[in-house]
Specification:
Keywords: Membrane, Transmembrane, Transmembrane helix. With 429 residues, this protein is an alpha/beta fold. It contains twelve helices and 15 strands.
Length: 429
Amino acid sequence: MTTRAAGPFNPKVMLALVLFGALAFFATLYFIGTGQTGGGNDGGGHAAGRGLNGYAALAELLEDDGYDVSLSRSPGALTGESLLILTPPAFMEAEDLAEVIENRRLAGPTLVILPKWNVSEIPDQWDVEKEKGWVLLSGASEPFWLQELEGDLAMEGAVTELEPTGPHWRGLGMSGNLPDPVRSLSISGDRITPVVRDSDGETLIGYLDDGGYYPDLADAASIAATERDDEDAYEKWGVVFVAETDLLNNYGMADAQRAELAREIVALSMESYDLPVTFDLTQSGLGGTENLLTLAMKPPFLAATLCLLIAMLVVGWRAFRRFGPPASEGRAIAFGKRQLVANSAGLIQRTRRMHLLSAPYADMMRSRIAAALGLHRADDSQIDAALHRRLPDEPSFGQTLDHLRKARTPHEVLRAANALRSLERKLSR
């Protein structure tokens, strides 16, 4: 017989523990699948960098303004319908950058922020307070790929020194100073139309005038937008180049006037459309490859993933809410003579050795029948003679005993044993 034992742990505590562990596990899988592992603050000039040359402050500013901001580690997001902000490093292939820009002409606007600063880690020997991702600005130069751009993207860059007294930049009805006017990067090209200029009249921010129809950008440049005969011109999105990185990076966001300019440049790049903002991290070497876990967190596979998670929760709940507490096992061999006999009989029956009981049972029944006849130490012939006098119609005792000894099958053994037991009952009446 089994009994129900109370569980050693509180069910509510165990349920809370299991749910917390499951949620933590699935959250880990989700963030790994979506690439949100918290890395990227490596001192680089990208939206995950928190050094002077990074753009984390710009991303947070836009997010606070209500934009849907995302940091993309997937090359597939470069063609999405959003404002794509590219922050290419100084060393990369010009063809790769041109390909990304060209593939987006019909998908969405593009804002390209050129790199200017040469950075290095702050030496550990310096007795200064620093945090992870902080860098030392050790010089300025134009990116190496700039002069390798061809076609409509062909342009040149130059690092110049501005007068210490401002304003250092002017455009969009605003003006202000640069955090470091000693080294300013400007661009020039046949297809580059200035929007923001420095104090020398060089272009700090401009857009690509490639035959498309960009009325908002043209108005910001104080020129008239030209009507186009080509219908494809109205399908193109604008491309804005920011040569002076200190207008939008973390170094520049320390000033309210430059932060306001950054807002205006982002809104201008969208051309009055309400679009999400995507900062690309792949060109800075922070891209992630597609894997099964990443695909499981994206449509259309996300629906199957959610169904699987719900099914796992249902199975876990059913396992937790089983029918009562766990059953405790009883003793393999219970106390008492009756149980001992039952266990022994069960063992003999399972081993199919019932014929081994014939000889012991025959000896026991001889003694009991002899005692019932009043005989002591009698042999089979004496028992037969006494039995014939008491029960003349019964079969011979020796013959019944011989049948039991010769029985081999369980049926034969039981039939012979029942015959001896019936003879004993008749003598005991």
